[in-house]
């Protein structure tokens, strides 16, 4: 039997993207030639990452494929956060909070809303497993409350911060809950997270060989490193543009989070168009859980040698948006069926998040 070969472009894009990253890394500003090249490399790396993630998913099956993509992106993102916090000083005090909150809003409103909208426009009504997605969303709400809401109201330390013991508890709780979720998703109740309606002809095609899948897994990691690195490389240009527009500097973190989460966004939309909404929800909620479940424990450990305060508590505006996200998400996921209306509501909440990030 002939083994399935990877397209040539998917083999060429990862090293080329890394090469572009090497040219642009460490530059304060990108010139008129390098900036389009970095943007082109970023877009190509996203497309290649989604392709290789689908190859791996076809080999290992769901929900392992979506889990691999979510964890890989988050691990690289966490490494970037720690690096920036190490070199950022007091200016990086809110970096972890802003990045995790932006990831929650992007995944639970942006990615979910876009997947619901495009999927429902093509298939009118899409079905998913409410007990699986609802359970995952409950873990998201619990972790974001323990990690980002409680610091606003605790009194053991000054400001919206945790004391050392409280931060340690939040880190352990986040890691334990994420580990339990992964156990339930991949072993205990794996069938809960499989697509309820599966009409994808690709699933009946020949699965790639182990060698091809391992090659794609390696290239996937290279692509994700390129995506995060190129997003960081373009951040000085984004900072200059944001400053010139008079917008708050925190908008830069939102824009970088949008770039870093592009692979999940593209993969979720493609799954929804194939009438596999459960895969889209696995990607979105899995990315949200990985963002909290992995970032908070790493930050808790890193705080041992990091200098300066670590601000985790959300402000009033963010608390309102989080409460609205929790209410809307619960009503969406409890039904097990999705239409254009739910997608539009989630996208409107996401639009409000972006608008208030520009005009706080």
From TrEMBL:
<feature type="domain" description="Sodium/calcium exchanger membrane region">
    <location>
        <begin position="33"/>
        <end position="186"/>
    </location>
</feature>
<dbReference type="InterPro" id="IPR052946">
    <property type="entry name" value="Alkaline_pH_Ca-Antiporter"/>
</dbReference>
<feature type="transmembrane region" description="Helical">
    <location>
        <begin position="319"/>
        <end position="336"/>
    </location>
</feature>
<dbReference type="Pfam" id="PF01699">
    <property type="entry name" value="Na_Ca_ex"/>
</dbReference>
<feature type="transmembrane region" description="Helical">
    <location>
        <begin position="130"/>
        <end position="153"/>
    </location>
</feature>
<dbReference type="InterPro" id="IPR004837">
    <property type="entry name" value="NaCa_Exmemb"/>
</dbReference>
<protein>
    <submittedName>
        <fullName>Ionic transporter y4hA</fullName>
    </submittedName>
</protein>
<feature type="transmembrane region" description="Helical">
    <location>
        <begin position="64"/>
        <end position="87"/>
    </location>
</feature>
<feature type="transmembrane region" description="Helical">
    <location>
        <begin position="217"/>
        <end position="235"/>
    </location>
</feature>
<feature type="transmembrane region" description="Helical">
    <location>
        <begin position="165"/>
        <end position="184"/>
    </location>
</feature>
<feature type="transmembrane region" description="Helical">
    <location>
        <begin position="241"/>
        <end position="262"/>
    </location>
</feature>
<dbReference type="GO" id="GO:0015386">
    <property type="term" value="F:potassium:proton antiporter activity"/>
</dbReference>
<dbReference type="GO" id="GO:0015385">
    <property type="term" value="F:sodium:proton antiporter activity"/>
</dbReference>
<feature type="domain" description="Sodium/calcium exchanger membrane region">
    <location>
        <begin position="216"/>
        <end position="357"/>
    </location>
</feature>
<feature type="transmembrane region" description="Helical">
    <location>
        <begin position="283"/>
        <end position="307"/>
    </location>
</feature>
<feature type="transmembrane region" description="Helical">
    <location>
        <begin position="99"/>
        <end position="118"/>
    </location>
</feature>
<dbReference type="GO" id="GO:0005886">
    <property type="term" value="C:plasma membrane"/>
</dbReference>
<keyword id="KW-0472">Membrane</keyword>
<feature type="transmembrane region" description="Helical">
    <location>
        <begin position="33"/>
        <end position="52"/>
    </location>
</feature>
<keyword id="KW-1133">Transmembrane helix</keyword>
<keyword id="KW-0812">Transmembrane</keyword>
<feature type="transmembrane region" description="Helical">
    <location>
        <begin position="9"/>
        <end position="27"/>
    </location>
</feature>
